[in-house]
Amino acid sequence: MDVVFFGAYDPDYPRNAVLRRGLELNGVEVSECRVRPGPKFWLRYPLLISRWRRRREAPPSGLKFVLVPEFAQKDVPLARLVGRLTARRVVFDPLASRYETKILDWKRKPEGSFSARWNKAIDRWALRRADLILSDTRAHKDYYGLEFGLDPEKIAVVPVGFDDRIFRRSPANASARKSGPPGPFTVLFFGSFLPLHGVDAVIEAARKVRGMDKGVRFKFIGSGQTFDHIRALASDYGLDNVAFDGWLSQTELAARVAEAADVCLGIFGRTEKAGRVVPHKIYQAMALGKAVITSRTPAVEEFFSHGKNIFLCDEEYAGRLAEAVLELKEDPGLRETLARAGQDLVWEKYRPEAVGSELKRILENASGRNG
Questions:
Q1: What is the pTM of this model?
Q2: What is the pLDDT of residue 183?
Q3: Cα Rg for the chain, rounded, in angstroms?
Q4: What domains sit in the chain, N to C, each tagged with a CATH number?
Q5: Can you tell me the distance from the alpha carbon of 267 to that of 199, in angstroms, rounded to the nearest whole number?
Q6: pLDDT lower than 70: segments of the chain
Q7: N or C, which terminus of the chain has less Cβ within 10 Å?
């Protein structure tokens, strides 16, 4: 089997790293035809065509695919052309639709605006021109099918997983830190502060916890769309139990989480998209042996079970999150049980080799089904 990653994408983005490494670990020949994200599609198309022509095409035997990674909807038409000329099937891994992200989640324009219709049209154009669509959750698969009129048989679920070269399993990565002097119980959020993350609920929870237990500290790593608002909110509340760090590399992040966190947080947003995703951070924190608290959503419950390998919060998130933090602080046995069960689960099912095996199986079945 031969798969070419194609388009304007970041090769270090966790989703790409997991899929590529997973396929390689399962004996798939993987290469790329890539340009950096950013330039308009009419500028990058000539570059992609030039780079495709310079690459050495694989022999005609075996299954052959061109895979367009996340957020590259506008590169699917060119991938389709390349695929038809070289007898390759086109696989598209959108991760999220443009309409879902920009209109429903970020709310940059009203739902009935020209921008909303335009972004939905781009999604539809891309999704309908792929031979196979990858989805990170069944909830997302259902959304793509209903919103864009797609045949469910054309969509396959491949969870995002985690990169085991960075988020490594180690006896030292325990839910309760065992080295160094005693310190505050640390609840850690890391991410890009998107609306779906619902970081305002975390700040509200920190405010509630401060009034009940002075020994809990909330740490935030990252930046993004809602960061300034969140930091201002913490300042307005005078929260001395909250600290903010900037962006870290993936390697630095893994080390910081392993060293500093007693509990890690997922997402608490109320947007439609928040109910359809399981973000990288959940798999990554679990891989490091950390207990995870996140909102109860249909997507999360596809993969994890409350009280067994994760702690799920029902609405109202801020109050329930505060209760969950204090419960896990006071019950180290439960915290350790969740951490170990979560770690065992993701290392069994969601490390790159396991994810790649599932993707390879899907590609083989899709080829057989489509002739």
A1: 0.94
A2: 77
A3: 21
A4: 2-161+352-370 (3.40.50.2000), 185-349 (3.40.50.2000)
A5: 8
A6: 58-61, 170-182, 368-371
A7: C
